Amino acid sequence: xxxxxxxxxxxxxxxxxxxxxxxxxxxxxxxxxxxxxxxxxxxxxxxxxxxxxxxxxxxxxxxxxxxxxxxxxxxxxxxxxxxxxxxxxxxxxxxxxxxxxxxxxxxxxxxxxxxxxxxxxxxxxxxxxxxxxxxxxxxxxxxxxxxxxxxxxxxxxxxxxxxxxxxxxxxxxxxxxxxxxxxxxxxxxxxxxxxxxxxxxxxxxxxxxxxxxxxxxxxxxxxxxxxxxxxxxxxxxxxxxxxxxxxxxxxxxxxxxx
Length: 258
Ligand code: IP8
Prior knowledge:
Elements: E1 2-6, H1 8-11, H2 22-33, E2 39-43, H3 46-55, H4 67-90, E3 95-97, E4 104-105, E5 108-109, H5 111-122, E6 126-130, E7 132-137, E8 140-144, H6 146-157, E9 161-166, E10 183-185, H7 202-215, E11 219-224, H8 228-235, E12 243-246, E13 249-250, E14 253-254
Parallel strand pairs: 1-2, 1-9, 2-6, 3-6, 9-11, 10-12
Antiparallel strand pairs: 4-5, 7-8, 11-12, 13-14
The structure holds Isopentenyl phosphate (IP8).
Isopentenyl phosphate is lined by residues 8, 44-45, 49-50, 53, 73, 77, 131-133, 143, 145-147, 198-200.
């Protein structure tokens, strides 16, 4: 099982509101469609969900945000989701779109639903879900990031590999030098630089969620999503052009994963 996050900065143009990067989506879709093992895909919000979250001042902390804001974020993410699943379908995959609300119980992961999602993948479909605005109870809502979904799904189903496809060549030792760290341990300190306009915390959030996954013994690969061949190669065991965050070894062996 491979768990892949398609970063919002790859599948959308973050400088232009509500603008998908269709060529990148197509290229990623054909790479994912060609993988020879079960895949679960998660995607980010980019200039769809983040654009509206910023406009309506909505964040990952549950609060009483504007109801119209929640509806608008959800609408934009459903539209972006349809673009991603449409591209997967045309690339020959059998995407199985799942609203993130179907794998959450308010602010918590619904582990049984997530395990079912893995069974759907094992049966031959490709579950696709995404970061979104979700109801938290009462009048409260929150922004659930795709990165958070990645760690929730990874911990529940223990994929063989988690891939974060983003708009950078991997994790940089120093953002100004753009020197990629080829391999690192969970929680190893690096400077991230780029929280930017993301309401969910940009690269710092990705590294935090990656560290959580790697600490559970699951390898995480951070790769340039504009070079989908690097995903194909890593999944096929043909080298890691990006950053590999090694899952913590237990007694010299990785903890069991499927
Ligand atoms: O781009 C956030 O998902 P992310 C989605 O994975 C929204 O952080 C709605 C902002």
